Amino acid sequence: MNWLRRTTIVAGSILLGPALPVSLFVAQAQLRMTVDQLTSFIKSSIQLRHDDRKVADYVKKIKLSNALDARTVEDLQGMGAGPQTVMALKALASESTALPAAPPPPPKPAYVGPPPPDSIEQARVLSAVTENALDYSRNLPNFLCLQVTRRYIDQSGMESYRLVDTIAEKLSYFDQKEEYSVISVNGIPMTGREREHLGGATSSGEFGSILREIFSPETNTRFNWERWATLRGRRMHVFSYRVPQATSKYSIRWGQGGEARTIVAGYRGYIYADRQTNKVMRLQLEAENMPVDFPIQSVTLDLNYDYTDISGQKYILPLKAELHSREGKFLVKNEVEFRRYNRFGADTSISFGDVPDAIDEEQIKEQPVK
């Protein structure tokens, strides 16, 4: 099977497809670990449903740097570690009794920053954020931009990603609708190629569809104020939210043609809203309660917006989106950047040129609250 027959996720929906055959991850893993590294590995293998025998064989090759206690083994068993893995962990615990005890987890840093707003202020802010989100698409101009998607895969389930391809597309936003035209793949010019025919994981809807759904009254989203944050030097309200599957429109399609299958998933995440403007500047999403018989087990989206100049006027527009999906041990990561915005018009002529370098991670990273 080919990964290019994979998934379409649109932010509003996602498209994915069947996975490549995967080789055993054991050869790539390190043989010396701390107890903390070992427990992280076992938890990951449980989540990714690795074969119990193969995990046990891997554990037998590990040399610990500190002692593994029986309570930790019991906890891992309770989380779902298989019987052969548990036997290997017990043997490892017995072998490590003479080693120094594992250090306690570091204390959580004390919260530094202003006090949270009271419930009345939280409600006022959420009402303003909701109004702005529902009006978002209507307030955007017609424009063109360059969308660059760097697609990565990992066949081991260990998040050792490798770049598969880089897709450049001209994105046209006109009358609140998005259209995509492929310009190049890996620097090779492409014309007349539909993005759906490229295969692999793709997404769309970043220009308002997902915001409109989350904040629509019909969606019945539950919000809670969580904390303060700082993004790109601006103070943010952070709200958690959850959208139940019964009212969700977030669709995930796996495969193509006759083998295609589409589900609608509930989801949860966080909204970052600018304290001064009450406008959404970041959106995080995690699909929930995926059907057990659906090939894709998890989907997450992290979408950042920023202030962008178009013809001398500032608009809040997508800056970068990062999409993750998992099918067994097969992991997919898409890094999608939106560059070179320009107003759409009959006389508009844009030379997109070469694909720009990736956006500096410092532009995306959350800063400490001050």
Textual characterization of the structure:
There is one protein chain. The protein is an alpha+beta fold and 370 residues long. It is built from six helices and 19 strands. A hairpin with a 3-residue loop joins strand 1 (7-9) and strand 2. The longest helix is centred in the middle third of the chain and has 17 residues, at 119-135. The radius of gyration is 23 Å and the shape is globular. The termini are far apart.
SSE layout and pairing:
Layout: E1 7-9, E2 13-16, E3 32-33, H1 35-47, H2 52-59, E4 63-64, H3 70-79, H4 83-95, H5 119-135, E5 143-154, E6 162-174, E7 177-185, E8 188-189, E9 202-204, H6 209-215, E10 222-231, E11 234-243, E12 251-254, E13 261-264, E14 266-274, E15 280-288, E16 298-310, E17 313-327, E18 330-343, E19 366-367
Parallel strand pairs: 2-12, 3-4
Antiparallel strand pairs: 1-2, 1-12, 5-6, 5-18, 6-7, 7-8, 10-11, 10-19, 11-14, 12-13, 14-15, 15-16, 16-17, 17-18
Helix pairs in contact: 2-4, 3-4
> Strand order, biggest sheet?
8-7-6-5-18-17-16-15-14-11-10-19
Q: Could you spell the SSE succession in H and E letters?
A: EEEHHEHHHEEEEEHEEEEEEEEEE
Main sheet attributes: strand count, strand direction, barrel closure: 12 strands, antiparallel
| Unreliable runs | 16-30
Helix segment tally: 6
The CA-CA distance between the termini, in Å, is 50 Å
Strand portion, in percent? 35-45%
**Nearest-integer average pLDDT:** 83
Radius of gyration based on Cα positions: 23 Å
Outline type: globular
- In terms of structural class, how would the helical and strand content be classed? alpha+beta
> What is the helix fraction of residues, given as a range?
10-25%
Q: Would you report the number of β strands? A: 19
